[in-house]
Amino acid sequence: MCNQSRLRSMALDSSGKQSEQQQQQQQQQQARVSSEIGDAERYKLRRFPNAEHEPENYEDLPLEFCPALFSSLERYLPEELLNSTRIDKASFMRRLLLQYSPDTERIRIVRHREYRDKILSSYRRLHGEIYNLDPTSFFAPSFLRAVSRKTEHSFRSIMVEQSPGIFTFEMLNPRFCEMLLAEVEHMEKWVYDTRSTIMRPNTLNKFGVVLDDFGFDSMLQKLVDDFINPISKALFPEVSGSSLDSHHGFIVEYGKDRDVDLGFHVDDSEVSLNVCLGKQFTGGELYFRGVRCDNHVNSDSTEKEVYDYFHVPGHAVLHRGRHRHGARATTSGHRVNLILWCRSSTFREMKKYQSDFSSWCGECKSEKQRRQRESVNATKEVLLRRAAEKTLVELASKSCAD
């Protein structure tokens, strides 16, 4: 979703050519990477994470990769490394990531981090308290009670499954919604006043902000780890709901002089959280049309898969990222939503080796059921034919005996 050309321009001087100093730094960096990759083969991660281990925070380290990725990966470290210093653990994980990441991806991440650092060094926060997760002040009491019990029954007790795989519930405290809305307006004012250019959330939304770029990444990752992960484990186990280890958090805005609607699409996520923050508006309904894998994303929907949802401020919609959906036009007013795309590197790796997604893809499931019916019918025909042949043989034998 990142605008790579814009990031690239940030790394170039006004003449459009890299300076000699930048070229030297890049050559030194590549040489350093090559030497580190050479001995990374000996590093192995655990098969399953240590759920009881509390990972470190890596936000302040100059890393080529997202700090949240290091925190998530730390739970998979070998037992003998879990009690090492933070620097040693970061070095260990960095070598592994360098081994499996192409240079182009690593360079893109470095430039994106430089872009973020530029924003964070200039932007002055309006409500600093909302950058750290405070469940008591952020969440509605009903949501907080349900999540504290950590059982599927408690989760479902506050949710309505409006249509298969689409769960709605009250989530955010009105005061938190107000503060986040004010913070977003403050961000937009800063962009206008400083004549800055910022990345928008994705290729479909031309308005809104990426919250991670403004310093919300740690707070949102904690939201994923402590709240969305347990819920997803219960509701969406087939898409590795319990191993969500990264996210993309952003704000979208609809109304006059903003985006009007949103085309039919699937999210770049395993699980998506969509929370309406406000304000006053009409229209903007979400329409859902069934879950599909890559091979069937453009297939027809069944009547049971058709569902429209009307936004309520403070209320959330939780669904699979592959659940096809769009947003109808916001006909008046101003609608603002918090979107959190939750991703699982484990699920994405496993998906490369799979061809049957009938556990979650509606069309794969229909095709599998169709094949099963055809197999059953074919078996019935064979059995009936054998029974008829047996009857004929018995009749012939009886006729000869007579």
From TrEMBL:
Biased composition (Low complexity): 21-30
Residues covered by region (Disordered): 1-36
PROSITE patterns, sorted: FE2OG_OXY
Record domain Fe2OG dioxygenase: where: 245-344
Membrane-spanning ranges: none
Coiled-coil spans in chain: none
Keywords attached to this entry: Dioxygenase, Iron, Metal-binding, Oxidoreductase
GO molecular function ontology, one term from the record: metal ion binding
Cofactor: L-ascorbate
Highest rank taxon of the organism: Eukaryota
PANTHER family: 2-OXOGLUTARATE AND IRON-DEPENDENT OXYGENASE DOMAIN-CONTAINING PROTEIN 2 (PTHR24014), 2-OXOGLUTARATE AND IRON-DEPENDENT OXYGENASE DOMAIN-CONTAINING PROTEIN ICU11 (PTHR24014:SF8)
UniProt name for this protein: 2-oxoglutarate and iron-dependent oxygenase domain-containing protein ICU11
Species: Cardamine amara subsp. amara
Lineage: Eukaryota, Viridiplantae, Streptophyta, Embryophyta, Tracheophyta
